[in-house]
């Protein structure tokens, strides 16, 4: 789990409840250790080093997602990167991605060859209603290689 916020905490808790091993990674080592301890059963990893598991959940703001992926570089080769970001503008009035792309596609550009990016973006009905032409990027799961 790359990220230390509410989504990282909630998803990590569910993964642990399902009997999975969870590693918490964040830029602030003290916060990563604190979250891992609070979850009970998670471990704290070190930012910038290879994540332990085969699946990496990217639970950071979209604006920093590509940079986070670049930071890990080839350490992500062969891993499945689950992108839960939402590439929305600060005012939630539109998307910040090019018209012919999605957040996951932009993140995939930063991933090393051999990594697989899965878009598991959250549903945002208000945005979808406002911007129907982009709705396909929010409905379902898209797998990008």
Task: Describe the fold and architecture.
- By secondary structure, this protein is an alpha/beta fold.
- It is built from five helices and six strands, in the order αβαββαβαβαβ.
- The strands form two sheets. Strands 3-4-5-6 form a four-stranded mixed β-sheet, covered by helices on one side. Strands 1-2 form a two-stranded parallel ribbon.
- Helix 3 packs parallel to helix 4 (103-110).
- It starts with 5 loop residues before the first helix and ends with a strand.
Mean of pLDDT: 85
β-strand number? 6
Per the principal axes of the C-alpha atoms, what is the gross shape? globular
Secondary-structure element pattern, one letter each? HEHEEHEHEHE
In terms of structural class, how would the helical and strand content be classed? alpha/beta
Largest sheet: 4 strands, mixed
Low-confidence stretches: 123-145
**Radius of gyration over alpha carbons?**
15 Å
Q: Assign a percent range to the helix content.
A: 25-40%
Provide the β-strand percentage band. Answer: 5-15%
Strand order of the largest sheet: 3-4-5-6
Distance between the termini: 20 Å
Helix tally equals 5
Q: What would you say about this model in short?
A:
This protein has 145 residues and is α/β, with parallel strands linked by helices. 33% of the residues lie in helices and 13% in strands. The protein contains five helices and six strands.
Descriptive key words:
single chain; 145 residues; alpha/beta; four-stranded mixed sheet; two-stranded parallel ribbon; globular; disordered C terminus
